[in-house]
Amino acid sequence: MSEPAVAIPGAPESDSGPIGARRTFAIIAHPDAGKTTLTEKLLLFGGAIHLAGAVKARGESRRARSDWLKIEQQRGISVSTSVMNFEYQGWTFNLLDTPGHEDFSEDTYRTLTAVDSAVMVLDAAKGIETQTRKLFEVTRLRDMPIITFVNKMDRESQDPFALLDEVSSTLALDCVPANWPVGMGHDFKGCYDLFTGRLLITGKENKNLEPEVIILEKGLDDPRAAELLPAAQLAKLREDIELIQVGYPEFDTEAYRQGHMTPVYFGTALKNFGVDELLKGLGNFAPPPRPQPAEGRMVLPTEKPVTGFVFKVQANMDKNHRDRVAFLRLCSGHFKRGMKLKQVRSGKPITVSNPTLFFARDRALADEAWPGDIIGIPNHGTLRVGDTLSESEDLRFTGIPNFAPEILRRVRLGDPMKAKHLQRALEDLAEEGVTQVFRPRIGADWIVGLVGPLQLDVLAARLAEEYNLEVGFEQAPYETARWISGATAKDLDEFLAQNRGTIADDRDGAPVFMARNAWELSYIEKKWDRIHFHATRERS
Ligand code: G4P
Protein backbone atom coordinates (compact mmCIF):
# COMPACT_ATOMS: atom_id res chain seq x y z
CA MET A 1 0.00 0.00 0.00
CA SER A 2 1.41 3.40 -0.87
CA GLU A 3 1.70 5.88 1.97
CA PRO A 4 -1.58 7.74 2.42
CA ALA A 5 -1.25 11.49 1.86
CA VAL A 6 -2.56 12.24 5.30
CA ALA A 7 -1.59 9.48 7.68
CA ILE A 8 -3.81 9.65 10.71
CA PRO A 9 -2.00 9.22 14.03
CA GLY A 10 -2.97 5.95 15.67
CA ALA A 11 -3.98 4.17 12.46
CA PRO A 12 -2.84 0.54 12.41
CA GLU A 13 0.26 -0.04 10.32
CA SER A 14 -0.20 -3.72 9.73
CA ASP A 15 -2.96 -3.41 7.12
CA SER A 16 -0.81 -3.77 4.06
CA GLY A 17 -0.61 -6.10 1.09
CA PRO A 18 -3.54 -6.81 -1.20
CA ILE A 19 -5.71 -8.22 1.60
CA GLY A 20 -4.78 -5.61 4.23
CA ALA A 21 -5.50 -2.77 1.79
CA ARG A 22 -9.10 -3.86 1.12
CA ARG A 23 -12.06 -2.15 2.73
CA THR A 24 -15.44 -3.69 2.04
CA PHE A 25 -18.26 -1.58 3.44
CA ALA A 26 -21.89 -0.52 3.09
CA ILE A 27 -23.75 2.70 3.83
CA ILE A 28 -26.77 2.50 6.08
CA ALA A 29 -29.23 5.38 6.31
CA HIS A 30 -32.85 6.36 6.70
CA PRO A 31 -34.28 7.37 3.28
CA ASP A 32 -33.41 10.96 2.39
CA ALA A 33 -30.49 11.29 4.80
CA GLY A 34 -28.16 11.57 1.81
CA LYS A 35 -26.92 8.04 1.07
CA THR A 36 -27.07 8.51 -2.70
CA THR A 37 -25.35 11.89 -2.61
CA LEU A 38 -22.64 10.59 -0.31
CA THR A 39 -22.11 7.49 -2.48
CA GLU A 40 -21.73 9.69 -5.50
CA LYS A 41 -19.22 11.92 -3.72
CA LEU A 42 -17.20 8.98 -2.39
CA LEU A 43 -16.93 7.68 -5.95
CA LEU A 44 -15.98 11.14 -7.11
CA PHE A 45 -13.28 11.64 -4.49
CA GLY A 46 -12.12 8.07 -5.08
CA GLY A 47 -11.71 8.95 -8.77
CA ALA A 48 -14.18 6.24 -9.84
CA ILE A 49 -16.35 8.79 -11.63
CA HIS A 50 -15.08 11.99 -13.12
CA LEU A 51 -16.67 15.36 -13.47
CA ALA A 52 -15.46 17.36 -16.43
CA GLY A 53 -15.71 21.19 -16.29
CA ALA A 54 -17.33 22.82 -13.34
CA VAL A 55 -20.52 23.99 -15.03
CA LYS A 56 -20.96 20.66 -16.74
CA ALA A 57 -20.28 19.03 -13.43
CA ARG A 58 -23.78 19.61 -12.20
CA GLY A 59 -25.44 17.97 -15.16
CA GLU A 60 -22.90 15.22 -15.19
CA SER A 61 -23.26 14.53 -11.52
CA ARG A 62 -27.02 14.50 -11.85
CA ARG A 63 -26.70 11.91 -14.60
CA ALA A 64 -24.45 9.70 -12.54
CA ARG A 65 -27.10 9.76 -9.91
CA SER A 66 -30.02 9.14 -12.17
CA ASP A 67 -28.21 6.06 -13.46
CA TRP A 68 -28.49 4.59 -10.04
CA LEU A 69 -32.10 5.59 -9.69
CA LYS A 70 -33.02 4.34 -13.12
CA ILE A 71 -31.56 0.97 -12.37
CA GLU A 72 -33.28 0.89 -9.02
CA GLN A 73 -36.60 1.72 -10.62
CA GLN A 74 -36.15 -0.81 -13.38
CA ARG A 75 -35.28 -3.53 -10.97
CA GLY A 76 -37.86 -2.60 -8.36
CA ILE A 77 -36.81 -0.90 -5.20
CA SER A 78 -35.66 -4.00 -3.38
CA VAL A 79 -32.96 -4.60 -5.96
CA SER A 80 -30.00 -2.42 -6.59
CA THR A 81 -26.81 -1.90 -8.49
CA SER A 82 -25.11 -3.69 -5.68
CA VAL A 83 -21.35 -3.24 -5.81
CA MET A 84 -18.82 -0.55 -6.63
CA ASN A 85 -15.10 -1.18 -6.63
CA PHE A 86 -12.70 1.79 -6.53
CA GLU A 87 -9.21 2.70 -5.39
CA TYR A 88 -7.95 5.60 -3.37
CA GLN A 89 -4.48 6.32 -2.04
CA GLY A 90 -3.44 2.70 -2.12
CA TRP A 91 -6.63 1.25 -0.65
CA THR A 92 -9.12 -0.80 -2.62
CA PHE A 93 -12.68 -0.08 -1.59
CA ASN A 94 -15.69 -2.26 -2.25
CA LEU A 95 -18.87 -0.31 -1.56
CA LEU A 96 -21.99 -2.44 -1.41
CA ASP A 97 -25.29 -0.71 -1.88
CA THR A 98 -28.01 -1.55 0.60
CA PRO A 99 -31.51 -1.11 -0.82
CA GLY A 100 -32.82 2.18 0.50
CA HIS A 101 -36.48 1.72 1.23
CA GLU A 102 -38.49 1.72 4.40
CA ASP A 103 -39.08 -2.00 4.66
CA PHE A 104 -36.55 -4.17 6.28
CA SER A 105 -35.65 -6.71 3.64
CA GLU A 106 -33.70 -9.91 3.59
CA ASP A 107 -31.69 -8.50 0.77
CA THR A 108 -30.42 -5.73 3.06
CA TYR A 109 -29.56 -8.18 5.78
CA ARG A 110 -27.64 -10.40 3.41
CA THR A 111 -25.73 -7.49 1.96
CA LEU A 112 -24.64 -6.61 5.46
CA THR A 113 -23.30 -10.15 5.97
CA ALA A 114 -20.91 -9.51 3.08
CA VAL A 115 -19.25 -6.33 4.42
CA ASP A 116 -16.64 -5.76 7.10
CA SER A 117 -17.81 -2.34 8.24
CA ALA A 118 -20.51 0.26 7.65
CA VAL A 119 -20.94 4.00 7.37
CA MET A 120 -24.08 5.27 9.11
CA VAL A 121 -25.39 8.49 7.56
CA LEU A 122 -27.57 10.77 9.68
CA ASP A 123 -29.45 13.88 8.66
CA ALA A 124 -28.08 16.55 11.02
CA ALA A 125 -31.57 17.95 11.61
CA LYS A 126 -33.17 14.58 12.31
CA GLY A 127 -30.55 12.47 14.09
CA ILE A 128 -31.35 8.78 14.47
CA GLU A 129 -34.48 7.81 12.52
CA THR A 130 -36.47 4.57 12.47
CA GLN A 131 -34.67 2.93 9.56
CA THR A 132 -31.25 4.01 10.85
CA ARG A 133 -32.03 2.20 14.02
CA LYS A 134 -33.28 -0.99 12.40
CA LEU A 135 -30.25 -1.20 10.16
CA PHE A 136 -27.95 -0.45 13.04
CA GLU A 137 -29.46 -3.36 15.00
CA VAL A 138 -28.59 -5.66 12.11
CA THR A 139 -24.98 -4.48 12.10
CA ARG A 140 -24.83 -4.98 15.85
CA LEU A 141 -25.70 -8.66 15.48
CA ARG A 142 -22.28 -9.00 13.88
CA ASP A 143 -20.45 -6.42 16.06
CA MET A 144 -19.76 -4.50 12.93
CA PRO A 145 -17.58 -1.39 13.14
CA ILE A 146 -19.53 1.77 12.30
CA ILE A 147 -18.29 5.17 11.16
CA THR A 148 -20.93 7.89 11.55
CA PHE A 149 -21.38 10.66 9.02
CA VAL A 150 -23.63 13.54 10.09
CA ASN A 151 -24.80 15.02 6.81
CA LYS A 152 -26.47 18.29 5.76
CA MET A 153 -24.61 20.58 8.19
CA ASP A 154 -25.26 23.32 5.64
CA ARG A 155 -28.90 23.24 6.76
CA GLU A 156 -30.36 24.17 10.11
CA SER A 157 -29.24 21.28 12.30
CA GLN A 158 -29.34 20.03 15.81
CA ASP A 159 -26.48 21.08 18.06
CA PRO A 160 -23.50 18.77 17.32
CA PHE A 161 -22.98 17.94 21.01
CA ALA A 162 -26.65 16.99 21.28
CA LEU A 163 -26.31 14.76 18.22
CA LEU A 164 -23.33 12.96 19.74
CA ASP A 165 -25.35 12.44 22.94
CA GLU A 166 -28.24 11.04 20.93
CA VAL A 167 -26.03 8.55 19.10
CA SER A 168 -24.36 7.34 22.29
CA SER A 169 -27.54 7.06 24.31
CA THR A 170 -29.87 5.55 21.67
CA LEU A 171 -27.37 3.14 20.20
CA ALA A 172 -25.19 2.52 23.27
CA LEU A 173 -22.09 3.37 21.30
CA ASP A 174 -19.15 5.53 22.43
CA CYS A 175 -18.80 8.53 20.15
CA VAL A 176 -15.56 10.30 19.32
CA PRO A 177 -15.80 13.32 17.04
CA ALA A 178 -13.37 12.99 14.12
CA ASN A 179 -13.94 16.51 12.87
CA TRP A 180 -15.99 19.46 14.04
CA PRO A 181 -18.33 21.74 12.13
CA VAL A 182 -17.70 25.47 12.04
CA GLY A 183 -21.21 26.87 12.23
CA MET A 184 -24.30 25.34 10.64
CA GLY A 185 -27.03 26.23 8.16
CA HIS A 186 -26.35 29.58 6.47
CA ASP A 187 -23.41 30.11 8.83
CA PHE A 188 -21.75 26.82 7.97
CA LYS A 189 -18.14 27.64 7.12
CA GLY A 190 -16.39 24.28 7.10
CA CYS A 191 -14.86 21.69 9.40
CA TYR A 192 -11.92 21.35 11.73
CA ASP A 193 -10.20 17.96 11.39
CA LEU A 194 -9.56 16.78 14.93
CA PHE A 195 -7.20 13.99 13.81
CA THR A 196 -4.84 16.11 11.74
CA GLY A 197 -5.48 19.63 13.08
CA ARG A 198 -6.33 20.90 9.57
CA LEU A 199 -9.03 23.47 9.02
CA LEU A 200 -11.15 23.22 5.88
CA ILE A 201 -13.10 26.34 5.05
CA THR A 202 -15.58 27.28 2.34
CA GLY A 203 -14.11 29.61 -0.22
CA LYS A 204 -16.05 31.60 -2.77
CA GLU A 205 -19.48 30.24 -3.59
CA ASN A 206 -20.73 30.40 -7.13
CA LYS A 207 -23.93 28.63 -7.95
CA ASN A 208 -22.51 27.16 -11.14
CA LEU A 209 -19.36 25.82 -9.51
CA GLU A 210 -18.59 23.16 -7.01
CA PRO A 211 -17.95 25.03 -3.75
CA GLU A 212 -14.30 25.92 -3.23
CA VAL A 213 -12.60 24.39 -0.19
CA ILE A 214 -9.64 26.21 1.38
CA ILE A 215 -7.35 23.99 3.43
CA LEU A 216 -5.29 25.44 6.29
CA GLU A 217 -2.77 22.75 7.14
CA LYS A 218 -1.77 24.48 10.38
CA GLY A 219 -5.40 24.80 11.46
CA LEU A 220 -6.02 27.34 14.18
CA ASP A 221 -2.35 28.37 14.20
CA ASP A 222 -2.63 29.61 10.62
CA PRO A 223 -3.04 33.42 10.65
CA ARG A 224 -5.50 33.12 7.74
CA ALA A 225 -8.01 31.40 10.06
CA ALA A 226 -8.72 34.82 11.59
CA GLU A 227 -9.05 36.38 8.15
CA LEU A 228 -11.38 33.74 6.79
CA LEU A 229 -13.62 33.22 9.79
CA PRO A 230 -15.64 35.81 11.78
CA ALA A 231 -14.09 36.34 15.22
CA ALA A 232 -17.13 34.97 17.06
CA GLN A 233 -17.09 31.71 15.07
CA LEU A 234 -13.37 31.26 15.58
CA ALA A 235 -13.75 31.79 19.33
CA LYS A 236 -16.65 29.32 19.45
CA LEU A 237 -14.58 26.75 17.55
CA ARG A 238 -11.67 27.09 20.02
CA GLU A 239 -14.09 26.70 22.91
CA ASP A 240 -15.76 23.62 21.35
CA ILE A 241 -12.38 21.98 20.73
CA GLU A 242 -11.42 22.48 24.37
CA LEU A 243 -14.70 20.91 25.46
CA ILE A 244 -14.14 17.95 23.15
CA GLN A 245 -10.64 17.41 24.48
CA VAL A 246 -11.86 17.05 28.03
CA GLY A 247 -15.29 15.53 27.35
CA TYR A 248 -14.58 12.67 24.93
CA PRO A 249 -12.23 9.70 25.07
CA GLU A 250 -9.28 9.33 22.70
CA PHE A 251 -10.16 7.48 19.54
CA ASP A 252 -9.29 3.80 19.97
CA THR A 253 -9.10 1.78 16.74
CA GLU A 254 -9.59 -1.52 18.53
CA ALA A 255 -12.73 -0.34 20.34
CA TYR A 256 -14.07 0.88 16.97
CA ARG A 257 -13.20 -2.38 15.22
CA GLN A 258 -14.98 -4.34 17.94
CA GLY A 259 -18.12 -2.27 17.38
CA HIS A 260 -18.04 -0.35 20.70
CA MET A 261 -16.91 3.06 19.49
CA THR A 262 -17.79 5.18 16.47
CA PRO A 263 -15.80 8.07 15.01
CA VAL A 264 -18.23 10.81 13.98
CA TYR A 265 -17.64 12.98 10.90
CA PHE A 266 -19.72 16.10 10.41
CA GLY A 267 -20.13 17.50 6.93
CA THR A 268 -22.25 17.98 3.88
CA ALA A 269 -22.10 15.53 1.03
CA LEU A 270 -23.71 18.08 -1.24
CA LYS A 271 -21.00 20.66 -0.61
CA ASN A 272 -18.11 18.19 -0.31
CA PHE A 273 -17.25 18.76 3.34
CA GLY A 274 -16.25 15.76 5.39
CA VAL A 275 -16.27 13.35 2.43
CA ASP A 276 -12.52 13.22 1.87
CA GLU A 277 -11.95 12.91 5.63
CA LEU A 278 -14.48 10.10 5.75
CA LEU A 279 -12.67 8.20 2.97
CA LYS A 280 -9.34 8.63 4.75
CA GLY A 281 -10.98 7.51 7.99
CA LEU A 282 -12.26 4.37 6.24
CA GLY A 283 -8.82 3.69 4.80
CA ASN A 284 -6.96 4.26 8.05
CA PHE A 285 -9.34 2.70 10.56
CA ALA A 286 -11.92 0.41 8.94
CA PRO A 287 -10.94 -3.23 9.20
CA PRO A 288 -9.50 -5.17 6.31
CA PRO A 289 -11.42 -8.39 5.47
CA ARG A 290 -12.48 -10.01 8.72
CA PRO A 291 -12.47 -13.74 9.51
CA GLN A 292 -15.77 -15.29 8.40
CA PRO A 293 -17.82 -17.73 10.46
CA ALA A 294 -18.23 -21.20 8.97
CA GLU A 295 -19.56 -24.40 10.51
CA GLY A 296 -17.05 -25.54 13.08
CA ARG A 297 -14.46 -22.81 12.56
CA MET A 298 -13.60 -19.29 11.48
CA VAL A 299 -12.06 -18.87 8.03
CA LEU A 300 -9.15 -16.42 7.97
CA PRO A 301 -8.68 -14.22 4.92
CA THR A 302 -5.00 -15.19 4.83
CA GLU A 303 -5.72 -18.89 4.29
CA LYS A 304 -4.40 -20.07 0.93
CA PRO A 305 -7.33 -22.01 -0.55
CA VAL A 306 -9.97 -19.82 -2.17
CA THR A 307 -13.36 -19.72 -0.42
CA GLY A 308 -16.40 -17.46 -0.62
CA PHE A 309 -20.15 -17.34 -0.20
CA VAL A 310 -23.02 -16.16 -2.36
CA PHE A 311 -24.97 -13.40 -0.60
CA LYS A 312 -27.13 -12.26 -3.47
CA VAL A 313 -28.46 -13.50 -6.78
CA GLN A 314 -29.80 -11.10 -9.34
CA ALA A 315 -31.86 -12.45 -12.21
CA ASN A 316 -32.52 -10.68 -15.48
CA MET A 317 -29.80 -8.05 -15.12
CA ASP A 318 -29.89 -7.92 -18.85
CA LYS A 319 -33.45 -8.24 -20.06
CA ASN A 320 -32.45 -9.66 -23.42
CA HIS A 321 -30.67 -12.58 -21.86
CA ARG A 322 -32.26 -14.39 -19.02
CA ASP A 323 -28.98 -14.29 -17.18
CA ARG A 324 -28.44 -14.49 -13.48
CA VAL A 325 -25.52 -13.18 -11.61
CA ALA A 326 -24.51 -14.64 -8.28
CA PHE A 327 -22.56 -12.22 -6.09
CA LEU A 328 -19.74 -14.00 -4.33
CA ARG A 329 -17.95 -12.47 -1.36
CA LEU A 330 -14.44 -13.86 -1.34
CA CYS A 331 -13.34 -14.88 2.14
CA SER A 332 -9.88 -16.37 1.61
CA GLY A 333 -7.22 -17.12 -0.99
CA HIS A 334 -6.07 -15.46 -4.18
CA PHE A 335 -8.77 -15.99 -6.79
CA LYS A 336 -7.75 -16.25 -10.44
CA ARG A 337 -9.99 -16.32 -13.47
CA GLY A 338 -10.70 -19.81 -14.82
CA MET A 339 -10.35 -21.40 -11.40
CA LYS A 340 -12.38 -24.48 -10.53
CA LEU A 341 -14.31 -24.09 -7.29
CA LYS A 342 -16.56 -26.64 -5.64
CA GLN A 343 -20.17 -25.77 -4.89
CA VAL A 344 -20.20 -27.42 -1.49
CA ARG A 345 -24.00 -27.96 -1.37
CA SER A 346 -24.02 -30.16 -4.48
CA GLY A 347 -20.40 -31.27 -4.44
CA LYS A 348 -20.15 -30.19 -8.10
CA PRO A 349 -17.18 -28.27 -9.50
CA ILE A 350 -17.82 -24.92 -11.19
CA THR A 351 -15.28 -23.36 -13.51
CA VAL A 352 -15.40 -19.63 -12.97
CA SER A 353 -14.42 -18.42 -16.41
CA ASN A 354 -16.30 -15.11 -16.58
CA PRO A 355 -16.10 -13.51 -13.15
CA THR A 356 -17.13 -9.86 -13.14
CA LEU A 357 -15.85 -6.98 -11.06
CA PHE A 358 -18.23 -4.05 -10.74
CA PHE A 359 -17.07 -0.49 -11.16
CA ALA A 360 -19.10 2.68 -10.87
CA ARG A 361 -20.37 2.67 -14.44
CA ASP A 362 -18.94 -0.49 -15.79
CA ARG A 363 -18.39 -4.11 -15.31
CA ALA A 364 -15.13 -5.76 -16.26
CA LEU A 365 -13.78 -9.27 -16.34
CA ALA A 366 -11.84 -9.97 -13.18
CA ASP A 367 -8.52 -11.69 -13.83
CA GLU A 368 -7.88 -11.92 -10.14
CA ALA A 369 -9.55 -11.00 -6.89
CA TRP A 370 -8.75 -11.07 -3.19
CA PRO A 371 -10.62 -11.63 0.05
CA GLY A 372 -13.06 -8.78 0.59
CA ASP A 373 -13.73 -8.45 -3.15
CA ILE A 374 -17.11 -9.22 -4.62
CA ILE A 375 -17.21 -11.02 -7.93
CA GLY A 376 -20.27 -11.61 -10.06
CA ILE A 377 -20.59 -15.12 -11.47
CA PRO A 378 -23.00 -15.49 -14.39
CA ASN A 379 -24.87 -18.80 -14.18
CA HIS A 380 -28.15 -20.42 -15.09
CA GLY A 381 -29.66 -20.89 -11.66
CA THR A 382 -27.06 -23.30 -10.26
CA LEU A 383 -25.81 -20.88 -7.63
CA ARG A 384 -28.06 -19.89 -4.75
CA VAL A 385 -27.94 -17.41 -1.91
CA GLY A 386 -26.08 -19.02 0.97
CA ASP A 387 -23.95 -21.30 -1.25
CA THR A 388 -20.33 -21.76 -0.28
CA LEU A 389 -17.73 -22.09 -3.03
CA SER A 390 -14.46 -23.66 -1.99
CA GLU A 391 -11.25 -24.68 -3.70
CA SER A 392 -10.71 -27.78 -1.57
CA GLU A 393 -12.33 -28.11 1.88
CA ASP A 394 -16.01 -28.98 2.38
CA LEU A 395 -16.78 -25.76 4.20
CA ARG A 396 -20.09 -24.09 4.92
CA PHE A 397 -20.26 -20.40 5.74
CA THR A 398 -23.02 -19.60 8.22
CA GLY A 399 -25.10 -16.58 9.09
CA ILE A 400 -27.19 -16.06 5.96
CA PRO A 401 -30.65 -16.96 7.22
CA ASN A 402 -34.17 -16.78 5.88
CA PHE A 403 -36.50 -14.75 8.07
CA ALA A 404 -40.02 -15.81 9.03
CA PRO A 405 -42.34 -13.72 6.87
CA GLU A 406 -44.64 -11.20 8.49
CA ILE A 407 -47.05 -11.08 5.57
CA LEU A 408 -48.53 -14.13 3.85
CA ARG A 409 -50.62 -13.90 0.68
CA ARG A 410 -52.17 -16.34 -1.74
CA VAL A 411 -51.18 -15.74 -5.34
CA ARG A 412 -54.11 -15.77 -7.81
CA LEU A 413 -53.31 -16.01 -11.49
CA GLY A 414 -55.21 -14.04 -14.11
CA ASP A 415 -54.69 -16.90 -16.57
CA PRO A 416 -54.80 -20.34 -14.89
CA MET A 417 -53.05 -21.91 -17.90
CA LYS A 418 -49.87 -20.20 -16.79
CA ALA A 419 -49.43 -22.10 -13.52
CA LYS A 420 -46.11 -23.68 -14.51
CA HIS A 421 -44.82 -20.35 -15.69
CA LEU A 422 -45.80 -18.79 -12.37
CA GLN A 423 -44.00 -21.51 -10.46
CA ARG A 424 -40.78 -20.82 -12.34
CA ALA A 425 -41.11 -17.06 -11.92
CA LEU A 426 -41.76 -17.36 -8.18
CA GLU A 427 -38.79 -19.66 -7.83
CA ASP A 428 -36.58 -17.17 -9.65
CA LEU A 429 -37.72 -14.28 -7.50
CA ALA A 430 -37.47 -16.33 -4.32
CA GLU A 431 -33.89 -17.02 -5.23
CA GLU A 432 -33.18 -13.31 -5.39
CA GLY A 433 -34.81 -12.76 -2.02
CA VAL A 434 -37.69 -10.69 -3.43
CA THR A 435 -40.14 -13.12 -1.83
CA GLN A 436 -40.33 -16.47 -0.13
CA VAL A 437 -42.61 -19.14 -1.56
CA PHE A 438 -44.56 -21.81 0.27
CA ARG A 439 -46.53 -24.72 -1.15
CA PRO A 440 -49.32 -25.78 1.24
CA ARG A 441 -49.56 -29.55 1.58
CA ILE A 442 -53.32 -29.23 1.03
CA GLY A 443 -54.58 -26.93 -1.74
CA ALA A 444 -53.08 -25.75 -5.01
CA ASP A 445 -52.32 -22.06 -4.58
CA TRP A 446 -48.86 -20.78 -3.90
CA ILE A 447 -48.41 -18.67 -0.83
CA VAL A 448 -45.84 -15.91 -0.86
CA GLY A 449 -44.24 -14.68 2.31
CA LEU A 450 -42.82 -11.19 2.71
CA VAL A 451 -41.11 -9.25 5.41
CA GLY A 452 -42.55 -5.82 4.49
CA PRO A 453 -45.63 -4.57 2.57
CA LEU A 454 -43.63 -2.73 -0.11
CA GLN A 455 -42.24 -6.05 -1.29
CA LEU A 456 -45.74 -7.01 -2.53
CA ASP A 457 -45.73 -4.13 -5.04
CA VAL A 458 -42.23 -5.00 -6.16
CA LEU A 459 -43.23 -8.64 -6.61
CA ALA A 460 -46.35 -7.80 -8.66
CA ALA A 461 -44.44 -5.29 -10.81
CA ARG A 462 -41.65 -7.71 -11.57
CA LEU A 463 -44.00 -10.61 -12.34
CA ALA A 464 -45.81 -8.36 -14.82
CA GLU A 465 -42.75 -6.76 -16.37
CA GLU A 466 -40.29 -9.60 -16.56
CA TYR A 467 -42.55 -12.64 -16.76
CA ASN A 468 -45.65 -11.18 -18.35
CA LEU A 469 -47.81 -12.56 -15.56
CA GLU A 470 -50.76 -10.65 -14.14
CA VAL A 471 -51.37 -11.77 -10.59
CA GLY A 472 -53.48 -10.71 -7.67
CA PHE A 473 -52.80 -11.30 -4.01
CA GLU A 474 -55.44 -12.52 -1.62
CA GLN A 475 -55.42 -12.52 2.10
CA ALA A 476 -54.23 -15.96 3.19
CA PRO A 477 -55.87 -17.30 6.34
CA TYR A 478 -52.47 -17.22 8.00
CA GLU A 479 -50.60 -14.42 9.64
CA THR A 480 -47.24 -15.89 10.41
CA ALA A 481 -45.06 -18.91 9.71
CA ARG A 482 -42.37 -20.88 11.51
CA TRP A 483 -39.91 -23.47 10.31
CA ILE A 484 -40.27 -26.60 12.40
CA SER A 485 -38.08 -29.42 13.63
CA GLY A 486 -38.73 -32.16 16.17
CA ALA A 487 -36.83 -33.51 19.16
CA THR A 488 -36.93 -36.79 17.21
CA ALA A 489 -38.02 -37.68 13.69
CA LYS A 490 -41.04 -39.46 15.18
CA ASP A 491 -42.14 -36.28 17.03
CA LEU A 492 -41.95 -34.32 13.81
CA ASP A 493 -43.87 -36.96 11.82
CA GLU A 494 -46.62 -36.98 14.42
CA PHE A 495 -46.91 -33.20 14.35
CA LEU A 496 -46.98 -33.12 10.55
CA ALA A 497 -49.65 -35.84 10.41
CA GLN A 498 -51.92 -34.09 12.90
CA ASN A 499 -51.56 -30.60 11.44
CA ARG A 500 -51.65 -31.30 7.71
CA GLY A 501 -53.98 -28.41 6.98
CA THR A 502 -51.53 -25.81 8.26
CA ILE A 503 -48.27 -27.24 6.93
CA ALA A 504 -46.51 -26.00 3.83
CA ASP A 505 -43.12 -26.70 2.29
CA ASP A 506 -40.66 -23.96 1.55
CA ARG A 507 -38.66 -23.82 -1.65
CA ASP A 508 -36.16 -26.37 -0.38
CA GLY A 509 -38.85 -28.72 0.91
CA ALA A 510 -38.36 -27.75 4.55
CA PRO A 511 -41.64 -27.98 6.52
CA VAL A 512 -43.25 -24.79 7.75
CA PHE A 513 -46.11 -24.35 10.20
CA MET A 514 -48.51 -21.55 9.30
CA ALA A 515 -50.43 -19.94 12.12
CA ARG A 516 -53.65 -17.94 11.88
CA ASN A 517 -52.41 -15.50 14.50
CA ALA A 518 -49.88 -15.02 17.26
CA TRP A 519 -52.22 -16.52 19.82
CA GLU A 520 -52.55 -19.75 17.86
CA LEU A 521 -48.81 -19.95 17.39
CA SER A 522 -48.16 -19.63 21.08
CA TYR A 523 -50.92 -22.15 21.89
CA ILE A 524 -49.46 -24.72 19.49
CA GLU A 525 -45.93 -24.06 20.75
CA LYS A 526 -47.04 -24.85 24.31
CA LYS A 527 -49.07 -27.86 23.29
CA TRP A 528 -46.30 -29.44 21.22
CA ASP A 529 -43.31 -29.06 23.50
CA ARG A 530 -41.19 -31.56 21.54
CA ILE A 531 -41.43 -29.45 18.41
CA HIS A 532 -39.12 -26.48 17.82
CA PHE A 533 -40.49 -23.44 16.00
CA HIS A 534 -37.86 -21.32 14.29
CA ALA A 535 -38.22 -17.69 13.21
CA THR A 536 -35.16 -17.96 10.98
CA ARG A 537 -33.73 -20.75 8.95
CA GLU A 538 -30.10 -21.14 7.98
CA ARG A 539 -29.86 -21.84 4.30
CA SER A 540 -28.74 -25.29 3.36
P1 G4P B 1 -31.01 9.08 0.10
O1 G4P B 1 -30.23 8.40 -0.96
O2 G4P B 1 -30.48 8.81 1.48
O3 G4P B 1 -32.48 8.87 0.03
O4 G4P B 1 -30.78 10.67 -0.04
P2 G4P B 1 -30.29 11.55 -1.26
O5 G4P B 1 -28.82 11.48 -1.42
O6 G4P B 1 -31.15 11.27 -2.44
O7 G4P B 1 -30.62 12.99 -0.68
C1 G4P B 1 -31.92 13.39 -0.33
C2 G4P B 1 -32.06 14.88 -0.53
O8 G4P B 1 -31.16 15.56 0.35
C3 G4P B 1 -31.70 15.35 -1.94
O9 G4P B 1 -32.50 16.49 -2.20
C4 G4P B 1 -30.26 15.78 -1.79
O10 G4P B 1 -29.85 16.73 -2.75
C5 G4P B 1 -30.28 16.39 -0.41
N1 G4P B 1 -28.95 16.39 0.23
C6 G4P B 1 -28.08 15.36 0.32
N2 G4P B 1 -26.98 15.75 1.00
C7 G4P B 1 -27.16 17.05 1.33
C8 G4P B 1 -26.37 18.01 2.02
O11 G4P B 1 -25.26 17.76 2.48
N3 G4P B 1 -26.91 19.25 2.16
C9 G4P B 1 -28.15 19.59 1.67
N4 G4P B 1 -28.57 20.83 1.86
N5 G4P B 1 -28.90 18.70 1.00
C10 G4P B 1 -28.43 17.45 0.84
P3 G4P B 1 -33.75 16.45 -3.15
O12 G4P B 1 -34.31 17.81 -3.15
O13 G4P B 1 -34.64 15.32 -2.75
O14 G4P B 1 -33.14 16.04 -4.53
P4 G4P B 1 -32.38 16.97 -5.56
O15 G4P B 1 -33.46 17.61 -6.33
O16 G4P B 1 -31.54 17.94 -4.78
O17 G4P B 1 -31.56 16.02 -6.36
Automatic annotation (TrEMBL):
<dbReference type="InterPro" id="IPR041732">
    <property type="entry name" value="RF3_GTP-bd"/>
</dbReference>
<keyword id="KW-0547">Nucleotide-binding</keyword>
<dbReference type="InterPro" id="IPR035647">
    <property type="entry name" value="EFG_III/V"/>
</dbReference>
<dbReference type="InterPro" id="IPR038467">
    <property type="entry name" value="RF3_dom_3_sf"/>
</dbReference>
<dbReference type="Pfam" id="PF00009">
    <property type="entry name" value="GTP_EFTU"/>
</dbReference>
<comment type="similarity">
    <text>Belongs to the TRAFAC class translation factor GTPase superfamily. Classic translation factor GTPase family. PrfC subfamily.</text>
</comment>
<feature type="domain" description="Tr-type G">
    <location>
        <begin position="20"/>
        <end position="290"/>
    </location>
</feature>
<dbReference type="InterPro" id="IPR000795">
    <property type="entry name" value="T_Tr_GTP-bd_dom"/>
</dbReference>
<dbReference type="InterPro" id="IPR027417">
    <property type="entry name" value="P-loop_NTPase"/>
</dbReference>
<keyword id="KW-0342">GTP-binding</keyword>
<keyword id="KW-0963">Cytoplasm</keyword>
<protein>
    <recommendedName>
        <fullName>Peptide chain release factor 3</fullName>
    </recommendedName>
</protein>
<dbReference type="InterPro" id="IPR004548">
    <property type="entry name" value="PrfC"/>
</dbReference>
<dbReference type="Pfam" id="PF16658">
    <property type="entry name" value="RF3_C"/>
</dbReference>
<dbReference type="InterPro" id="IPR032090">
    <property type="entry name" value="RF3_C"/>
</dbReference>
<dbReference type="Pfam" id="PF22042">
    <property type="entry name" value="EF-G_D2"/>
</dbReference>
<feature type="binding site">
    <location>
        <begin position="97"/>
        <end position="101"/>
    </location>
    <ligand>
        <name>GTP</name>
    </ligand>
</feature>
<dbReference type="InterPro" id="IPR005225">
    <property type="entry name" value="Small_GTP-bd"/>
</dbReference>
<feature type="binding site">
    <location>
        <begin position="151"/>
        <end position="154"/>
    </location>
    <ligand>
        <name>GTP</name>
    </ligand>
</feature>
<keyword id="KW-0648">Protein biosynthesis</keyword>
<dbReference type="InterPro" id="IPR009000">
    <property type="entry name" value="Transl_B-barrel_sf"/>
</dbReference>
<dbReference type="InterPro" id="IPR053905">
    <property type="entry name" value="EF-G-like_DII"/>
</dbReference>
<dbReference type="InterPro" id="IPR031157">
    <property type="entry name" value="G_TR_CS"/>
</dbReference>
<comment type="function">
    <text>Increases the formation of ribosomal termination complexes and stimulates activities of RF-1 and RF-2. It binds guanine nucleotides and has strong preference for UGA stop codons. It may interact directly with the ribosome. The stimulation of RF-1 and RF-2 is significantly reduced by GTP and GDP, but not by GMP.</text>
</comment>
